[in-house]
Write a structure and sequence with these properties.
four-stranded antiparallel beta sheet; transmembrane; transmembrane helix; membrane; Immunoglobulin-like; 36% strand; 5 helices; alpha+beta; single chain
Length: 412
């Protein structure tokens, strides 16, 4: 009798070792496939996770024990037991249907208590706090073999806290530089079921999973993500969430804990706003000139103007205004824009041309003066020579000659 008992204990130990070996292989396979995925393969990985979770659940429950003469095995209800740390738990074990009696069945358990009703065993515990627990429901058949089913409950604990930070960096970031985000999850179990997602605003950046396997007790885990900053990230908020993926047998709403928001400040050098002004600008005397040198940057840039003359100019940051421009304003104007990241300059060459109205007035004045002079000459000549005929062309050419009277011509 003692020999039979020792053999049954040895066979149960062998069965438990095989079960843990299978679970370890499955988890290794899962984490290898998950760690090799890229972000676009998220849906495929989710399906893989669901399938493997089902496999693990059924293997945890339905891998059954020693004895080739066993025609049936005990059945647990529910088939998988996933319990939050410190919560009550219970299950029933239907030992067999026809190949045994209640007296030949039993339940090996480290915690809790059970009652037997025929071939049905009811196990209950008021507060489940054992992280590594294995329950074995078995019976001995007529051939003397022990038919065993092992149930390994999963005890979980949501993260106590989740925090996000930059690794070895404080203060503002700089454009096109690489930085590392770190998401720290405290006191969570089982860590192999933990998934961490990094977010920027409402956009998910990456899903990561722990590389620990078969760790049942709570532990701390850290996840990192490399990012390259851009000016579009300025003002964005980074955060991460930790989720326990416990499969279909777990809670309908997986436990999720999120971190605080981490605002990003990105510094970048000045950059011109809008289309650039031409380098050479021609304006008309008397017009108003606006030189646009508006730049954007973080921190906000400062402006310095270098002008050819000390004139009364209106400087509004990136826009220089010259009212009623004159020839003294011709020359080169230099706009220097700078912040803590960099300095840039922009040059404007101004050419002032005379107003066309001046030429019109000058032409009209010259024409009027010419007409006046001509009229004066004609009047003077007419007064001196009232009679006779003459050629105006000759008069203009020889103003001192006079015409001869016709009567004198006859005498000659």
């Amino acid at each position: 009798m003692l020999l039979s008992f020792l053999l049954s204990v040895h066979s149960r130990r062998q069965l438990a070792n095989k079960l843990w070996a299978r679970r370890f292989f499955i988890n290794k396979l899962f984490f290898f496939s998950f760690s090799q995925r890229n972000y676009p393969d998220t849906m495929l990985s989710c399906y893989l996770f669901l399938i493997i979770s089902l496999m693990i659940s059924f293997r945890d429950v339905r891998v059954s024990g020693s004895g080739s003469s066993c025609t049936e095995y005990p059945v647990f209800t529910p088939p998988a037991l996933i319990v939050k740390y410190g919560d009550p738990a219970n299950f029933t074990c239907d030992v067999c249907q026809k190949d045994c009696s209640g007296d030949s069945s039993n339940l090996e358990h480290a915690v809790g208590k059970f009652t037997r009703n025929g071939t049905t065993i009811l196990w209950t515990v008021d507060r489940l706090t054992e992280w590594d627990i294995s329950l074995q429901c078995y019976y001995n058949n007529d051939a003397g073999d022990q038919c065993t089913t092992i149930l390994n409950p999963t005890l979980y604990q949501p993260p106590e806290s989740v925090s996000i930070s930059f690794v070895n960096h404080t203060g503002p970031m700089f454009e096109n530089q690489q930085y590392t985000l770190q998401c720290s999850v405290q006191n969570v179990a089982p860590v192999q079921n933990l998934t961490v997602t990094f977010h920027r605003g409402n956009t998910a950046l990456r899903h990561l999973q722990s590389n620990h396997s078969e760790e049942k007790k709570p532990m701390n885990e850290t996840f990192t993500l490399n990012i390259t900053s851009s000016r579009e990230d300025n003002g964005a908020q980074y955060w991460c969430e930790a989720k326990l993926e416990l499969g279909p047998a777990g809670p309908q709403r997986p436990p999720v804990v999120t971190s605080e928001k981490l605002p990003a400040i990105v510094h970048y050098g000045p950059e011109l706003i809008g289309p650039p002004n031409p380098d050479d600008i021609t304006v008309t005397e008397g017009d108003t000139l606006h030189l646009n040198c508006s730049f954007v940057g973080n921190p906000s840039p400062s402006y310095t103007w270098t002008v050819p003359v000390n004139s009364s100019l209106s400087d509004n940051g990136g826009i220089l205004t010259i009212k009623s421009i004159g020839f003294e304003h011709e020359g080169q104007y230099i706009c220097t824009v700078s912040n803590t990241v960099g300095t840039v300059t922009k040059e404007f060459n101004i050419d002032v041309q005379a107003s066309p109205l001046i030429w019109i007035i000058a032409g009209v004045s010259a024409a009027v003066l010419f007409v006046i002079i001509l009229c004066v000459l004609c009047c003077r000549f007419y007064k001196q020579n009232r009679k006779g005929s003459y050629n105006l062309k000759d008069v203009l050419r020889f103003p001192k000659h006079t015409a001869l009277p016709l009567q004198n011509c006859e005498n000659v």
